[in-house]
Amino acid sequence: MFLQAFVIKNFRSIESVALNFQKGVNVLIGENNAGKSAIIDALRICLSYGSSWRDISIDFSDFYVDRGTCDPPPCEIGFDLYFTITDPDEKGWFHDLYAITEEGYEDLQLHFRFHVEELNGNSKIRRRYWGGATEGQRPDPEVLDLFYYVYLEPLRDAVQHLKPIRGSKIGQLFLNIVTNPDKRKSLSGKVRSALNDDEEWKTVVDDGKGKINTHLLETTIRGKEQDVDLDFLPFEFKRIVENLQVRMPVFSNEVLAGDQTKQKYFDLYQNGLGYNNLIYTATILGHLKQKAEVDPTSYMALLIEEPEAHLHPQLQNILFNYLHTLNQEHFQVFISSHSPTITAKADLDSLIVLQHQGGKVTALPVLRSPLSPDNKRYLHKFLDVTKSQLFFANGVLLVEGISEALLLPIFSRMMGSEYDLDKAGVEIVNVNGVAFEHFGKLFNDPDQARRLAARCAIITDDDRGEPTDDESPRAANAVALENGSLKVFLGTVTFEYELFLQGNNKDILLGIFENLKPKAKRNIVAGPTLETHGRAFVQKVADNKAKSELAHQLAVELELTEATREGFVIPEYIKSAIRWVVKGE
């Protein structure tokens, strides 16, 4: 079975959110304070309810407070978990959770409610929980005990977690590898025999025992003398494997040439944080996979916050690609991340995008979005690290090319500090063409629950042959996407043409182009009107493949030269797009 849906109400910053998951890997992404950690903690609370080692519980500070109204905390925190049955036997193992929906669909359900109760002037948190669709069907503790998870916190101390101590994850891994009691006894007996039958060790132990007993005889009452015997720690299999120590070999086999006696080792504290985290993660994965094999009746989950911690982008790629190969294992993986690298590598259907807009946390599982299979294939291919940052943004500007991407940030600052795109958390996405539909469908669904909450603006060219011509088909295709939180802003011909027509921009642009391509500039035929001059300029820039160079030099001029900034006029359709995406104007 796997957790297919999770509904959270009135928990921390989340008033209400419905999440959909898939079997295997699920990735929670989004800006800071969008509820990622709250969701991971909610899973921990629910999945540990039948365990004696619970390390997290509901506190008074966990109740949602509406910051807009300052209302008192609501009466109830609610968690509702819906599991999809993948093996008919699960209906028997989790019989207390079994439900048949009104549509005749079979699933397993687990529900939790927490509320504050005032009693004799004291506040207490009361709870109730049930399985199935009807409140009152309380699950047997043995059923709740079938839920198991491992949590890797964001600031994990791998050295501490891998120490040879009681309950270590390395010890648990080996306890699942060797489950037969007789086999464990046989293995531990070999360790005992190796030490007890060694004459040199026996001499050392007897010598130490004699010295202790000599002094003990002199310090006890005559007739009540005490003596001691010495033995090694109990050679139980569990104690032995819990004391296994992780070390890193210094030399390769090629260097040693087969002589392992020359091998030296680094202790964990001498290793880098990133690689220690990989060692710890690998240990956990080994533990979970082995436990799933010996305990197939349990539901198991791995909860990881920020797997990118201490890892450079290439190692993030390797780790995340490997995690995706675990989709067929018998445990579910839930990851929270800020990493565009991980987002770019993720299967789109595994992404749940969390946003904090207008004081409310919202979630869009891409699995439930209106994106078609073709849209997803396109996005999966072209969502590089830069473009994947749109999932973390407060707003998104979709543009055709590098020229717009270079100039829009400086244009926004020229409009005033309140429109600064960087400060507003707005991401500019260069789609390198006009394939806006694949991105636009993330924002334009009429159903608010099926689109991203951030505003989006498409800035594109009409590319009309003449200003009097009808709207071009490409412009019509872009305008057709306008819906929901997506708006489209068109230039009449091209971006450079629109810049050329405004105020005294002509002189600024021609001066820059002359510095870049003096011969080409001299060959521009101005024509009788500003419009014809503008078209000739744009054509000459295109012929010389100088669009990106022109945009870059213009951005530098605007950034460094106050006179250029004061004399430059931003086209109105560009300003309108920036106003919309920043302020919704």
List keywords for this structure.
six-stranded antiparallel β-sheet; alpha/beta; elongated; 585 residues; Rossmann fold; 3 domains; six-stranded mixed β-sheet; single chain; 24 helices
Unreliable sequence segments: none
Tell me the domain tally.
3
Shape summary: elongated
Helix run count: 24
What is the annotated CATH architecture of the largest domain? 3-Layer(aba) Sandwich
Instruction: Count every beta strand, where a strand is a DSSP E run of 2 or more residues.
Output: 18
Secondary-structure content class? alpha/beta
- Class of the largest domain, according to the CATH hierarchy? Alpha Beta
Provide the helix percentage: 25-40%
Radius of gyration from the CA trace?
33 Å
What percentage of the residues does DSSP assign to strands (E)? 15-25%
- Major sheet details: 6 strands, antiparallel
Distance between the termini: 47 Å
Mean pLDDT: 84
CATH topology of the largest domain: Rossmann fold
In CATH, the homologous superfamily of the largest domain goes by the name P-loop containing nucleotide triphosphate hydrolases
Could you characterize the architecture of this molecule?
- This protein has 24 helices and 18 strands.
- The mean pLDDT is 84.
- Strands 1, 2, 4, 5, 6 and 7 form a six-stranded antiparallel beta sheet that branches.
- Helix content is 39%, strand content 20%.
- The chain is elongated, with a radius of gyration of 33 Å.
